[in-house]
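This part of the workshop introduces the protein records we will be handling. The question running through the whole workshop is how a given chain folds. To make this concrete, we reproduce a full record directly below:
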Amino acid sequence: MPARTSQQKTARLALLGLAMALPASLALAGPGQAAQPAHTRTATVPAVAAAGAPLDDPYEKDIAMRLVSSAENSTLDWRGQFRYIEPYPDGRGYTGGIIGFTSGTGDMLELVERYTKKKPDNPLAKYLPALRKVNGSDSHAGLGKPFEEAWRKAADEDRAFRDAQEAERDRVYFDPSVQQAKADGLRTLGQFVYYDAIVMHGPGESKDSFGGIRKAALAKAKPPAQGGDEKAYLNAFLDARKKVMKKEKAHSDTSRVDTAQRVFLNEGNFDLRPPLKWKVYGESYRIDK
């Protein structure tokens, strides 16, 4: 899972899309699960949006969730990660959920608070004091195996917990990034480029956050809304993002830019239309119509 500093992220989006699930035969291993033999991961989009549909169209959004999941969880089955939870060794404490909420950076706490507000009597509510204490550290104090079991129980049995993850994803990451991309005149691919960046680097205006990356790109090229060339601007944004990624060991593999987003950009696929073929961390993936 991608690691972020507390300055880089204030919350993290849960990865829940709006279209049909992958068949069980296509579900792939996520973190903590047994890996399947290496081959091209393939999925078929259940329906196709109109040409030029924005990323918040339900079917384009489903594609976006699968693309991010290929990098975050090494699977196109992003919905299979609700129950994922482990003490990931990246200095952020526990990582959980289908986009990787972390106990050390505050967003796992915000998620459980949101969940508890909607449903006070839930398996995770009693861990709120511990989550508040470990926030800002890599400590697991007061959590441990019982917390992991409670997380999985909530994910498996309670729609309210899955809904809370979806709502946090949209509130903090998906909606703001797509809104900004539209304001910059970017089409569907550019909207996804923004979304993937904010998922990894978090919102904010620091140099290493989404806002800082965008600011660095704007210093090199103009977006379409300012009369610039869309491809040139997106290349500038991806270049700026790579510089930030290489600063941190957990992000030093930039294949989600080099062999995924840059591939679509070089193909001129600004509408992010299937079929899509890409690689992340050496694994091949494909989404067909």
In short: The two ends are 28 Å apart (CA to CA). The longest strand covers residues 283-288. Strands lie at 41-44, 85-86, 95-96, 101-102, 276-280, 283-288.
